[in-house]
Amino acid sequence: DATAWLNEEIEQLHKKEGDAHEFHKWWHHLLRWGRKGRTGARWFHGDNGEMATTMEEELEGWAAYQEDKAKATDAGQADWEPLADTRGITCPEWVVDTVLEHVAKENKATGYDGVSVTLWKRVKTARRICKALVRLMWCYELPAEEVLLCLQVMIHKPGKSWGQRKCFRPITLCNDMYKCLDGCLFYYMARETGIIQEPPPEEETTREPYLSETQRAYQRNRSTLDCLLVNTLTKLRARACRFIMLRNGTDLEGAFDTASHAALDKAMGAAGTSTKTRNVWRMIYKHTSAKIKISTAGGQTMYSREFKNERGGNQGTVLMPANFIMLTHYVY
Fold first, then answer.
1. Beta-bridge partners for 151
2. What's the distance, CA 136 to chain centroid?
3. Which residues fall within 8 angstroms of residue 62, CB to CB, at 6 or more apart?
4. Which run of H or E residues covers position 294?
5. Phi, psi of 315 (to 5 degrees)
6. CA separation for the pair 203, 302 (Å, rounded)
7. Per-residue pLDDT averaged across 159-177, rounded?
8. For all residues of the chain together, what is the average pLDDT?
9. CB neighbours of 16 closer than 8 A, spacing ≥ 6?
10. With contact defined as beta carbons under 8 Å apart, do 141 and 86 qualify?
């Protein structure tokens, strides 16, 4: 009986594999059979209580969920203070070359355009095109088409339930050309705020660090083992001197996803970031949008509708952790 049932399911699979919707229904029928004791034909329900039956409905459910999470809970970008017009200020070509050589990493998942950074790094013509587009976006503070369109892939959080959307973490896949622009931004901002103790481009003096020496992240020549050693020595010193030491650890749920754009911009201003760098950063977050990507077990890949992010940062970029660390330093 088991062999006959399996042969029948395989025959249905061969009939339905050409149609993504039919294959999706068949796959969840098989999951429903394997998950005895569970009710419902699908994992996820819509706000109206109905279950998705097609890939479009599943994608729309995820897009609506992520779009609702990304809505600003404060004034957001409307609260940005006016800045001087900096269009026309260029980014030196050697900065883009430095980012391509030392920051952009190969063998990473591609973004929406499907173009690997290997093309921009190793093919001379493509490298010139990449540098020209990045410098144009920097100079005129205008994005190239679909460069700032990101993909979000939902990854299940280990140990969490499989039946709730909040138990999945969105992993953002950015286009590699956007990563090059982001790397140029970090090159400037890290030196303007003293994270990297080198003079910013076209300057001769090193800036005072905005972050304190106790900030563990972005410390040159300091590894994870160094941080553990400092922590252990601090505890031993407190014990030897009979100090009362209070250790307080915090974990902000959805921290990167819910950071206010207004607060991120204010933190950059307080840290000493230049007006040009802030204007380019604003251009990125004003035009960034996202799509949900879903791949079925049969190999079909589909995308949701495009939606805007009114708060939160673009995870997967070099700049976002530095932005968040400056924001927490500014707040606390």
1. 173, 291
2. 23
3. 154, 165, 292, 294, 304
4. strand 289-295
5. -70, 150
6. 48
7. 84
8. 82
9. 22, 23, 25, 26
10. yes
Residue 8 has pLDDT above 80, yes or no: no
Q: Are strands 149-156 and 289-295 parallel, antiparallel or unpaired?
A: parallel
Give the pLDDT confidence score for residue 42 in this predicted structure. 45
Give the DSSP letter of residue 172.
E
User: How does DSSP assign 183-234, residue by residue?
Assistant: HHHHHHHHHHTTSS-SPPTT--SPPPPSS-TT--TT-TT--HHHHHHHHHHH
Identify the CA nearest to 117 among candidates 202, 161, 175, 75.
175
C-alpha span between 314 and 185 (Å, rounded): 14
Residue 44: predicted pLDDT: 64
Q: Give the tens place of pLDDT for each residue, 29-66.
A: 666 555 443 333 345 655 565 667 788 888 888 898 88
Q: Which positions ≥6 away from 215 have C-beta within 8 Å?
A: 325, 329
The answer to whether 161 and 167 are in contact (CB under 8 A) is yes
Q: Which of 9-23, 31-45, 53-67, 306-320 has the lowest mean pLDDT?
A: 31-45
Task: Measure the CA–CA gap between 144 and 287, rounded to whole angstroms.
Answer: 10
Tokens of 105: 């990493």
> pLDDT per residue over 196-232, tens digit each?
889 998 889 999 888 876 565 656 666 767 777 877 8
State the distance between the two ends of the chain, measured CA to CA, in whole angstroms: 66
Burial of 299 (0-12, 13-18, 19+ CB in 10 A): exposed
d(CA 321, CA 315): 8
Shortest CA distance to 140 belongs to which of 181, 174, 112?
181
Say how many C-beta atoms besides its own lie within 10 A of residue 260's C-beta: 20
Q: Give me 190's structure tokens.
A: 């890290």
